[in-house]
Amino acid sequence: MTRAIDYGGLMHRAMQGLISDVLQRVAENGLPGEHHFFITFDTREEGVEIADWLRERYPAEMTIVIQHWYENLIVEDDRFEVTLNFGNSPERLIVPFDAMRTFVDPSVEFGLRFETQESEDEEDDGAEGVIEEAQEVDIPKEGGEVVSLDKWRK
Questions:
Q1: Which of 23, 33, 58, 72 could form a disulfide with 62 if both were Cys (CB 3.0 to 4.6 A apart)?
Q2: Among candidates 48, 63, 75, 147, which has minimal Cα distance to 101?
Q3: pTM over 0.90
Q4: Cα(43)–Cα(103) distance, integer angstroms
């Protein structure tokens, strides 16, 4: 079997590391200036811990905002934890970095989209190959939706 360099996996881990570093700085020093984050994650991913009522309301994906009111932001190697306010009800969330789908800081027009795609080849051990990709996303100045750069790739 020919081994190849897993650039997609390396990029994915590097972008998770970038987000981990940013969140660690915020945990230590607070949010600077107008920075704030929209983080979308898969609520079904192993290791995600959210209140049952939130899981019922967001059975597949959830987007949180880290901006004005957040407490106890803790960043670990594989996840972050934060307490957020949902309608005057503080709730603790634990989100593994592998569960993240998008990370956006609209104050500086920065965003990443993490996508999972099936590879064309299957591994010899019988497991299906999965390519994890981290992609920069285009953040419109006047709101709008996050756009994947895939549509411009050949």
A1: 58
A2: 63
A3: no
A4: 15
